[in-house]
Amino acid sequence: MDIVNHQFRLAARPVGLPKRSDWNYVEEPVREPADGELLVKILYISLDPAMRGWVREGKSYIAPVEIGQVMRAGAVGQVIASKNPKFAVGDSVVGMLGVQEYALSDGRGLNKVDPNIVPLPLYLGVIGMPGMTAYFGLLDVCQPKAGETVVVSAAAGAVGGVVGQIAKLKGCRAIGLAGGAEKCAYIVKELGYDAAIDYKNENVFNALQQHCPAGINIYFDNVGGDILDYALALLARMARISICGAISQYNNTGPVRGPANYLSLLVNHARMEGFVVLDYADRWGEAARELAGWYLAGKLKSREDIVPGLEIFPETLLKLFSGENFGKLILKVA
Ligand SMILES: NC(=O)c1ccc[n+]([C@@H]2O[C@H](COP(=O)([O-])OP(=O)(O)OC[C@H]3O[C@@H](n4cnc5c(N)ncnc54)[C@H](OP(=O)(O)O)[C@@H]3O)[C@@H](O)[C@H]2O)c1
């Protein structure tokens, strides 16, 4: 086959914020698919905070990427050769295809998607893994009831943007935290949040107290750290906290900072529960149908931050940790 692949392979385990030298950018020829395999030309690659965890050694919900392996990433692309009867040339597919231009696959874990229903990048965002995370993390883990107050951190992001919108669809009040005036205006005016707190420029505890006078019924935590502690201090009776992520802690070189105010769970008969979206894989179809239905009916908005150029993967990933991404961060393979 006369095709050359470019890919990022893990070169070193990052210490603190990842840097370019933690990966090798390599070139290698693509071989013909063997029987049962297919070859995908990757078009869009999902950049996720979880990638920081995947390159860390130690026990997690998924095995770490090993040194020398192609960096793990969700991606969408098009089948350009197939010796797998389930996939035909021209099919669009989504799956863990890696940070590279072409991926050989045996088809396991790949799902067909239809670009005529929604544009392909949305299968990495609102109709993809982040949308599923918002859907199950809110509806299953927290079981919101109409009239309840739902607080969401990283509320302008891929997951948080969807959580607030689903909370509103379920009749809740949604209060979002985001960094900066522009993101705060966006979550209220575009996404329908009832109020926004600019955690970089406001006193978060006072603002939460003001916006949640009867306490917080649900806190959807994407960031951990101080904000989790403030939310704990303001829980309503029988509150639920969904531990979705803790991005403020991912690049720590020391231990993760745990919550000091956890006894608020006892006092308020409250519950704090972690979850991983992969645990819901057998129900993704159900979530995708409902999310796509809301999106097509104009009830769910989506924003993607699409950056062109595979070769700037390491620098682009850092946008997630500085807050420079505005919406679902996606790398467009040029
Ligand atoms: N449990 C699961 O299965 C699962 C699945 C997917 C994602 N997640 C988690 O969900 C969270 C959001 O992921 P995403 O893909 O939707 O990313 P995202 O929100 O689109 O992007 C990350 C955002 O986090 C905010 N942030 C970065 N550093 C921060 C800090 N120190 N304090 C407060 N906010 C900070 C920034 O927004 P601002 O500009 O507002 O600061 C940044 O834009 C992450 O923790 C991720 O690990 C979990």
Describe this structure in words.
Helix 2 packs across helix 3 and helix 2 packs across helix 8. The chain is an alpha/beta fold. It has ten helices and 15 strands. The strands form three sheets. Strands 3, 4, 5, 6, 7, 14 and 15 form a seven-stranded mixed sheet that branches. Strands 10-9-8-11-12-13 form a six-stranded parallel sheet, sandwiched between helices. A two-stranded antiparallel sheet has the order 1-2. The mean pLDDT is 97. The radius of gyration is 20 Å and the shape is globular.
Q: Topology of this protein?
A:
Layout: E1 4-10, E2 23-29, E3 38-46, H1 50-54, E4 74-82, E5 92-96, E6 102-105, E7 111-113, H2 129-140, E8 149-152, H3 158-169, E9 173-178, H4 181-189, E10 195-198, H5 204-211, E11 216-221, H6 225-233, E12 235-243, H7 263-267, E13 271-274, H8 284-296, E14 304-308, H9 313-317, H10 319-322, E15 328-332
Parallel strand pairs: 8-9, 8-11, 9-10, 11-12, 12-13, 14-15
Antiparallel strand pairs: 1-2, 3-4, 3-6, 3-15, 4-5, 5-7
The structure holds NADP nicotinamide-adenine-dinucleotide phosphate.
The site of NADP nicotinamide-adenine-dinucleotide phosphate (NAP) has 29 residues, from helix 2, helix 3 and helix 10.
Beta strand count: 15
Bound molecules: NADP nicotinamide-adenine-dinucleotide phosphate
- Mean pLDDT value: 97
Largest sheet: 7 strands, mixed
Helix segment count? Answer: 10
Helix and strand pattern: EEEHEEEEHEHEHEHEHEHEHEHHE
- Beta-strand share of residues: 25-35%
- The dominant shape is globular
